[in-house]
Design brief:
- By secondary structure, the protein is mainly alpha-helical.
- The protein has 8 helices and 2 strands; from the N terminus they run ααααβααααβ.
- It has a two-stranded parallel ribbon with strand order 1-2.
- Helix 3 packs parallel to helix 5 and helix 6 crosses helix 7.
- The chain is globular and about 50 Å long.
């Protein structure tokens, strides 16, 4: 029963509270920044770590180590997948234009193009989502974006064995 659960619901194993908090923080920051700037504040004062690099080359090497050892292919270490996802969102949400993550993100894409595509589609959908738009009660909202992400992760996790690591 436990192995069936792990194979059918990998997002339950991958997304812990820390990762959820990190992702929601990243998603909120990119939507809050324009409001912050309209209020007259500077971009540099938006985050305490504004100037810090959020995704280094050594972190790419760390993720690539797990990939080369086969962890992303069939046997999946949930801790390494969490790290991959966290770094993806950290790079995408960095509001400092001087921090360029194109090469790091390209390497993430090479490590696991399917997982990358799932995350990137979610990110693009989130960037298009207008948080200020009034919605009818029956109209789709951000919950559909999250549902699509969950479905993508479940499909990605098919035929993989997950090593439960916290």
């Amino acid at each position: 029963m436990e192995s069936m659960f792990r194979n059918q619901y990998p997002h339950c194993l991958i997304f812990d509270k820390e990762l959820y908090d990190h992702i929601s923080n990243c998603l909120e920051h990119v939507k809050m920044l324009p409001v912050f700037l309209k209020m007259g504040y500077s971009c540099e004062s938006f985050l305490y770590d504004y100037h810090d690099c959020k995704f280094t080359y050594s972190e790419v090497v760390y993720i690539k180590f797990f990939y080369k050892s086969g962890i992303f292919k069939v046997r999946v270490n949930t801790k390494s997948v969490r790290y991959y996802i966290a770094k993806f969102f950290a790079a995408k949400a960095d509001v400092n234009p001087k921090n360029n993550y194109i090469k790091q993100l390209q390497r993430l894409q090479k490590i696991d193009s399917v997982l990358y595509s799932i995350l990137d589609t979610f990110w693009d959908d989130w960037m298009k989502y207008d948080i200020e738009s009034p919605r009818d009660i029956l109209e789709d909202d951000y919950h559909q974006l999250i549902s699509n992400l969950n479905e993508g992760i479940i499909k990605w996790g098919e035929n993989k064995k997950f090593n439960y690591c916290w």
